[in-house]
Amino acid sequence: MRDAVAELVRDGDTVVIEGFTHLICFAAGHEIIRQRRRDLTLCRLTPDLVYDQMIAAGCARKLVFSWAGNPGAGPLYAVRRAVEEGVPAPLELEEYSHFGMVARFTAGAAMLPFMPLRSFRGSDLPKVNPRIQTVKSPYDGEEIAVVPPLHPDTVIVHVQRADQEGNAQIWGLLGVQKEAAFAARRVIVVAEEIVAESVIRADPNRTVIPGFIVDAVVHEPFGCHPSYAQGHYDRDNDFYVGWRDIGKERASLEAWLDEWVYGVADRAELVEGKALEVLPRLQGPFDLVYIDALKKEYRRYLDLSLPHLRVGGLVVVDNLLWKGHIADPPAEEDENARAISAFNTYFMIHPQLVSLILPLGDGVGLATKTRPLVTEMGGPF
Fold this sequence. Notes:
The chain is α/β, with parallel strands linked by helices.
């Protein structure tokens, strides 16, 4: 991610981080913050928390959007401060309806000079946005609203899986990822999993973005959090609700950025470091533990999670075959392969678990916690 942002996101660019509630790449937004990009024009149908954070960090000079808020939880306070107070920098607004933004991306993707639409009839948006114009139809003389094409400098799209060429697949809730990518000058695909080309070819209907328009492919598991990636992890609703209090005051938001964005090198450090710090503080007992994180940290995740799992609870661990790889494994054993091999042994002989590994896809481990464990010295396992 660091290399992709350094090469493909530049000061003054128009940047789109796409995803409609689903597959919003917060990891990319945080890397842009860490690299201290400035004077960006940020475009999204729903700016959401990711742009609130980027605006709070001083990355943006303009926001092109169709709705701004913390979905279901309140306003975006950093956006409000930038518009009303010029803090940390003045922010220009250019507002459309949702379909108005879709039309701009569609016109950009199709290389059209404008896109007509009727949804601005009766709206006050044309009064405050001079880019929404009207033209007379050459067929029946009707006056109809039009919007200009949008050609972002860089579009960042998070997907469930992609191959090394950038052929990217999405399932679940779709936004305008395809239109935005085809309208862009540069495209970064960020994937939960990097798979073999044969996997993409075997299920072509899921392919939303073809590799020939992609400039960089980034493997970034858990890169959407607190947004979600269907089939990988759910939306962190508690974070969205909690952001209302974090973002309300400039000092608390900047403290959050210092700890969770500037304070880590990248998303991987956040996952294996900061996230691991949270596990001991969880209040159980829980019925289910699901582990799908960095391979070398599987044992630590299991050890920290088990105390919070009730006896009789279920443990599910993903990616236990393929020598630690979703795609075809490398010819030589690497760090992932060694970590998975060691973890599989640990998982199968763990004294608190009755375990098995199912050869489904890339391997699924299932286990039931049979008892709490105390060592011979009387301490916890």
